[in-house]
Every structure is written in structure tokens, then in C-alpha cells.
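Chapter review: from sequence to fold.
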Amino acid sequence: MRLGQHFLKNERALKLIARSLNLKPRDNLIELGPGHGELTKFLLASKIDFSLIAIEKDERLANSLKESFKDDRLCVAVGDLRIIVPQLAERFSKYKLAGNIPYYLSGYLFRLIQECKTKPEKIIFTLQREVAERIMAKPGKMNKLAASVQFWAKPKILMRLGKNDFSPPPEVDSAVLELIPLNKLPMPPEKYYELMNKVFRQPRKTLANNLIFGSQIERKALETKLRQLDIEPLLRPQDLSVPDLVKLTLHF
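The C-alpha cell string follows.
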């Protein structure tokens, strides 16, 4: 194992991912970290005429992929996905994204996708279960990661995985997460994330306390404004929904 990789070997999960991508003729699919081609094999088993770009940082594994799969639909790109994905997003008007994501890269990768000029039509990642469940959070357990991702995509856990579904087994459980990016955002992302960062500045504090920090508005006026928006000032960040945060962004 190199680069902290744990290769998914559960064939039921691999078939589910390939099927859930719903590949169609002329689709562009980017596969991140294909490893030995565990998922690649099931993707190329289809007779559909689509384009598959597999990004692999490990040159040894990349060369092995080229040797293992003699398929004109496959292009193996050797390099860092953090550099290659934005370049491909500039090139394609439509594409899908899939991969078994190194746990240390998941947070960075979500930010990278959010900033891409063209977002994927569909994303299916295998990643740490705790991260997937945090992304799925609802009001009452909302967190900064969920608020960030749910602003631009609709998440769904397709399958939960155990340690023994991988080789070598990781120390944590995993999940297959599907993300469907929204066609239209309610506002510029920069404004939303600025407000979101302020609200979640200290998650244990009330909404009013977080919003008043560094603000020129008086507390009584702030609380009145929140109530006019049907948002209780004593709520904590975890109690808010993404629509609540959008509403706050429009008025603060």
C-alpha cells in the first residue's frame, strides 16, 4: 500500500457504484484514485460508449492500469487530482465524478469541487462513514461541513461499508455517498460561506452571540431582526437548516 490507500474489494458495492453513475453514451467520467482498477473493471464492463479518465498519483499503479485495461474509452492521467480535476472541469461542459477518496483529502476535495467552474452532474465517493454521516446532518445536528456541502448539492448515502470491505482494512468504517449538485444556487457562494463561517464560529454559542461578534448592530435590534425572519435568537448553529442560513445571508 502506498499513499495511504485502502482498496475497495466489496463487489456488491463496486457494482452499485457503477450502476448508480447511470452512464450514458458520450458521458465523461472522471475516476479518482482507481488503484488496481477495482471499480474501473466494472465501469468498462459496460458496452456504453463513454469516456473514462482515471487519475492516479502512484505511477506504478497507473502503469499497471494501462497494461491491464486495453480499452480506447480509458485514459489514465498520472498526477495529483487536486491539480487535474479543476483542469478537466474547465474542459468539460458535462461530466461525472467517482472514486475511493483518501480520508485525509475528503474535506479539501469538497471545497475543490465547490469552486470548480463547472460542477459534475453526479458525484459518487467512497469515504469515511463519519464524514458521510456528518454531510447528511439535519437541523438539530447541523454542522459546518453539512451546511457547506448541502448548499450546492443534495447528498444521499447509498451504502455503508465495514473495514473488511477494503484491502488492507482501514481503521474506520466507510460509506458510499452520492451527491447531486444543484442546477442553480440561491446566491453567490462567497456571501453564503462568509455568513456560514460567522454562524459556526463558536458552535456552542447561540446564533445571536455569534452574529453579534464584530458587528455594529445592537443586540436588541439583532434579536428583533432574527425574530422577523422567524428564527429564534437563542438557537444554536446545529439547529439551523440550509434555508435558514440562506435567509440569514440575505439579511445580514
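Two observations follow directly from the output. DSSP finds eleven helices and nine strands in the chain. The radius of gyration is 21 Å.
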